[in-house]
Amino acid sequence: MKKTTTLKETIYSKNLDFIMEAHNGMSAKIVEEAGFKGIWASGFTISASLGVRDNNEASWTQVLDVLEFMSDATSIPILLDGDTGYGNFNNARRLVQKLEQRNIAGVCIEDKLFPKTNSFINSKAQPLADVEEFCGKIKAMKDTQQDEDFIVVTRVEAFIAGWGLKEALRRAEAYRQAGADAVLIHSKRSDIKEIEAFMKEWNGRHPVVIVPTKYYSTPTARFKELGINLIIWANHNMRASIDAMQKTARQLHREKSLINVESNVATVEEIFRLQRAEELMAAEKKYFPAKKKVE
Ligand code: SPV
Ligand code: MG
């Protein structure tokens, strides 16, 4: 099945599904091997992996380059966190064209203004996109896609920016009518009050995606009851690796020896396996002339 079709079916299926964050080829491969149905190419963690902030400091073509490695390294679909679409409708539709060329299965855009700020920083001060303008962007993206199964998810930031349920619903409904394939309703509360209220009123009219980073203590069974379609574990590979790297770097700096470190890090052989080193060895046997014996 095409990557696009797999992702579309995953989002449209009534079952609760999960995708996980990756930020480069290696982490994308790790997400696939863990058994996930798809990958969240997170703007936050791709920026972080490049050492920059989640404020569109990395250009969109730099993000595309990362995505290309992620896509080549994996066979499951990738949903790009496309921030605001990196500009107006014209930038957003060009993004769709470039994503399809790289076999990316879908993109999520959020109703903020370019350059964006992460939803968990200073969020009350963040102005939202004009609804009509944002709907034009959605339409332009949907009209541009060549593969009918490519999906555009629209992320509603109304709760994040301090607006209430009414504004969240108004926006979600407008985006649905503009042709969005699913709605990501975002909340930064540590409980699920906003998500619950939204789901009750939304009443299953279109697939819903959530990012429970801040309300992490909610049992997954509750999300299922509410009728959520897709959960994104949005930054946990980055957070896990930062923790592991900090511990290892500090220990090596302190101890000036590998003795206590070796057994706590992945083996070199494991890296070879993830890089598919064996495939190259087999290919060399097939395609590369055997070295002539030196007489
Ligand atoms: C991301 O992973 O970049 C997201 C999700 O957009 S969040 O950080 O929760 O805004
Ligand atoms: Mg993001």
UniProtKB/TrEMBL annotation:
<dbReference type="InterPro" id="IPR012698">
    <property type="entry name" value="PEnolPyrv_PMutase_core"/>
</dbReference>
<protein>
    <recommendedName>
        <fullName>phosphoenolpyruvate mutase</fullName>
        <ecNumber>5.4.2.9</ecNumber>
    </recommendedName>
</protein>
<dbReference type="Pfam" id="PF13714">
    <property type="entry name" value="PEP_mutase"/>
</dbReference>
<dbReference type="GO" id="GO:0050188">
    <property type="term" value="F:phosphoenolpyruvate mutase activity"/>
</dbReference>
<dbReference type="InterPro" id="IPR039556">
    <property type="entry name" value="ICL/PEPM"/>
</dbReference>
<dbReference type="InterPro" id="IPR040442">
    <property type="entry name" value="Pyrv_kinase-like_dom_sf"/>
</dbReference>
<comment type="similarity">
    <text>Belongs to the isocitrate lyase/PEP mutase superfamily. PEP mutase family.</text>
</comment>
<keyword id="KW-0413">Isomerase</keyword>
<dbReference type="InterPro" id="IPR015813">
    <property type="entry name" value="Pyrv/PenolPyrv_kinase-like_dom"/>
</dbReference>
<keyword id="KW-0670">Pyruvate</keyword>
